[in-house]
Design brief:
Mean pLDDT of chain A: 92
CATH architecture of the largest domain in chain A: 3-Layer(aba) Sandwich
Oligomer: homodimer
CATH class of the largest domain in chain A: Alpha Beta
Number of strands of chain A: 10
Largest interface: A-B, 28 and 28 residues
Radius of gyration of chain A: 18 Å
Low-confidence stretches of chain A: none
Strand content of chain A: 15-25%
Order of helices and strands of chain A: EHEHEHEHEHHEHHEHEHEHE
Largest sheet of chain A: 6 strands, parallel
Helix content of chain A: 40-55%
CATH topology of the largest domain in chain A: Rossmann fold
Shape of chain A: globular
Number of domains of chain A: 2
Strand order of the largest sheet of chain A: 4-3-1-2-9-10
Structural class of chain A: alpha/beta
Number of helices of chain A: 11
């Protein structure tokens, strides 16, 4: 493996790097922009090689390192791995990549949000195949609440539904009911908290909530991750100065910038113009 | 671009190379094995980079050339591009790659099957985003039946449904009804023939047929492609000798061989053991 590129000099004025396999991580970027309105961001979606969720951990880790090197080379002060699959497969490797660069994943914040929300200690995790197989959420929750009962369900179709924009209606509803069936299998033992353990899933919140039934809380990593990044910047004195030039938002994609812009707008909650997205090769 | 590797010597005894983005092309391999039971095959699924259907034509063509070089390097007598997206994006480039090697795609055979099946000349093509955007089926059908009316519909979710194994039931049915809605929009003008223009879609045949309604014929490329390969081998005297060693079936995948074996069995119609699948890097 080659050495990591040297980080560009700069510090507080540099953007925060956000990395995802595609457009799903834009839900995390949306939360980051809300919590840190004065910061600049550079978002990289590895759209040429998505989805990560059906790939092996080894391959996902290799791709994540390439994306990280690209962002480090462009100059960032902090890296947010806004992809559950990459967080689960590669966070330790990414944290070792550049000892000066703080790296934040989405698994720990999601696990903390779930443990704080659950009253009965029964938590369901909806995620991609790869994240479920790796067990990262189950382990993270066990570290915080060792007595918690965790049920993890791989929901591959939710990714396709979110990308297709079918976030409501009969197809999404039928898929949510089918995936959540195991949670209703033992009456009186149902989880009271569901973690949306893939950044694509928040756009399907309403059908997942309907399938889960009343009294079940849905949590995702976006808001807690954004809080963690804010705390980290404050602790290291890396907040961008107010009164500096207006903050910037830049997008990089490894393929199909038109599709990134069209589909991405749904996840960011704001339109993205195709000419704002730079095509790069990793 | 580097030069193509030199084809291994051999001829008729060599296997037929079959290339797809993942496991969907196994439906084509199944048809090839049925029509050519004495032939050996080597199948390459580019599972690390699937799906191709949401990627740009340029990227798909680059990946297809790498896969072709790998198969040529191992020695094949003929290449079948068992992926509609790669056939649409890269067939001319692949045919130029090695002038001695016959290359067969799945678009032309599928278009011929549709033109032969349709009585009223109204044909619907269900395919991936990339195949629909490129217009390859529409153009291929127009060359054969210039008067035909072609409606192409991108059905991204069908790929995820087929891979998840949800080929029947309420989710698949609701998705098929939603995708086929435009075909029923103008009464009396509905197509009488539907091309399953992605190798994943034949496993969803029953729900697509139910959504299309009675009297609509479903055709796919698998059987006509296999017939074309048989005719090509006969014309070039490349049939394998009967009485030689038993034919061999080999599998290569660029990632997640366990998943390739587990999901692939559904498409091949016969079980695949994980240790029969060789992991390769392109």
């Amino acid at each position: 493996m080659s050495a990591a590129p040297a980080p560009a000099a700069g510090g507080a004025e540099l953007p925060i790097g956000v990395f995802d396999s595609g457009v799903g991580g834009l839900t995390v970027l949306r939360a980051l922009c809300a919590v840190l309105p004065g910061e600049s961001f550079i978002y990289l979606g590895d759209t040429a090689r998505l989805p990560y969720g059906t790939k092996s951990g080894h391959t996902v880790a290799r791709y994540a390192l390439q994306a990280t090197d690209e962002l480090i080379g462009r100059g960032i002060k902090c890296l947010v791995v806004a992809c559950n699959t990459a967080s689960a497969a590669a966070l330790p490797a990414l944290q070792q990549r550049s000892s000066q660069l703080p790296v934040v994943g989405v698994i720990e914040p999601g696990a903390r949000a779930a443990c704080a929300a659950s009253r009965n200690g029964r938590i369901a995790v909806l995620a991609t195949e790869s994240t479920v197989r790796g067990g990262a959420y189950t382990q993270a929750i066990a570290r915080i609440r060792p007595e918690a009962e965790v049920t993890a369900i791989a929901c591959a179709l939710f990714v396709a539904l979110a990308e297709e924009g079918w976030t409501e209606g009969p197809v999404a509803m039928a898929a949510a009911e089918r995936y959540l069936e195991p949670l209703r299998a033992v009456p009186g033992r149902a989880p009271d908290t569901i973690v949306l353990g893939c950044t694509h899933f928040p756009v399907l919140k309403s059908v997942i909530a309907a399938a889960a039934g009343p009294g079940v809380r849905l949590v995702d990593s976006a808001a807690t991750t954004a809080q963690e990044v804010r705390a980290l910047l404050a602790a290291r004195g890396l907040q961008r100065a107010t009164g500096a030039a207006p903050p910037q938002l830049r997008f990089l994609a490894t393929d199909a910038v038109d599709r990134f812009a069209a589909v991405g707008g749904r996840f960011l909650g704001a339109p993205i113009a195709a000419d704002e997205v730079e095509l790069i090769d990793l």
